[in-house]
What we know:
Layout: E1 4-10, E2 17-20, E3 30-33, H1 44-50, E4 62-65, E5 67-71, E6 78-82, E7 92-98, E8 101-106, E9 111-115, H2 119-133, E10 145-147, H3 149-152, H4 158-171, E11 177-180, E12 185-187, E13 190-194, H5 201-210, E14 214-219, E15 223-225, H6 229-233, E16 245-246, E17 249-253, H7 259-274, E18 279-282, H8 300-315, E19 319-322, H9 327-330, E20 336-338, H10 359-364, E21 374-376, H11 389-399, E22 404-405, H12 414-425
Parallel strand pairs: 10-11, 10-22, 11-14, 14-18, 18-19, 19-20, 20-21
Antiparallel strand pairs: 1-8, 2-3, 2-5, 4-7, 5-6, 6-9, 7-8, 12-13, 15-17, 16-17
Helix pairs in contact: 4-5, 7-8
Amino acid sequence: MSFARFDEVPVDPAAGRVHEHGWQSWSPVGTHPLDATTPRPETDVLHVMRFRPEAPAPAVGAQGEGLLVVDPGNGAPLRRYAVTSAAERVASIRTRLVGDRLLVDADGPLVVDEVDGDVETALRTFGDRFAADNALPPPRSAPTVWCSWYHYFLDVTEDDVVENLRAIEAADLPVDVIQLDDGWASQVGDWRSLSDRFASVPAVADRIAAAGRRPGIWVAPFTALAGSELARRNPSWLLEADAGWNWDQPMRGLDLTHSGVRQYLHDVFGQLRAWGFDYFKLDFLYTGALEAARHEDASAIAAYRSGLELVRDAVGDAYVLGCGAPMLPSAGLVDAMRVSPDTYHPGTGTDEVQTLRSEPATIARSWQHGRFWVNDPDCLVLRPSAPWRAHWAAVVERHGGLRGFSDRVADLDAWGLDAVRRLLGDPPPPTPFDLH
């Protein structure tokens, strides 16, 4: 759909503010001056992987995906522009300041409400209404997690997992799930073949379960690398759309309406569940919602939701965490959701991190916790080499729902071990935060 004028708001250009809600977990989100040009992707790859690929933002102004709030700054009520459902389509909403008027354009249907109070009030009341209108299930309590990613990255081995399992037992840390992150499969997309660092993933799951913990695993279910066996053997399963670049090669999204894709995913997740995994971190989910021709006539969002529903059916009552996921279209289909970018990336040492990339979005999306899902702010990193560890721990303690850490336990000092016991020992309930 094309953009059309939706509203024209009298504003105080100096005092007014606009809150734009980003498309997916890694998208920018926040409140800005009315005359600001909000964050834009620095490259085409980042546009695909962190913004909404089919809806590039204009050169100036703000753009929210399904939700945007305007504080006119002149004493008038706030105006909230929002979708009522995200099952089929989600409108993009743009603003542009012209003199003392804020022009609001949209490419789909919206409801506009006047709201007394502040931006946070407008967000919380939207969350309550969206949850009620779409009959979202009450969020389930999240388990506490140890994750392999932020120490081992792609080089994790079976021995690494076992070492940390033993160390968690020896230190009596309050960890429910031992989660194996990226690095266990031979390639993204090829979930039936292991990397050369793993002899048996089922054996790892058995070892975790025998220790009284829950086995967890990372999968990017809607993504295949261009060089994967899946892509080579089944080109008709792939969407004809750029999905970005990672693992040193192009990525492609899967056509979630294709019967072959659906059977493959159901079989993969059924097998993982049979091996004992009952906690699933589903990553790079945006690739299943890319705009492209599909085997069946379905909108990109409807196809995406059908894929999440299929995974949920295959894993039963297992706990599901979404990541890199379209936000509003995922509501009701995941138990927890990453609400921020990664804390840092491979190749960046913890002492080189200048700003906490995950902090602004974690705070800006606090209102979603307990309404749509349990908010995942990303893992705690608590080893002494992280000079920002105390600050990040304080952010997670106040604004984080799912509590997990991602250090080699042997690298933690007394402060780090105490932080694990304190933060994972007292996680918040799956109800909205009281931040006042």
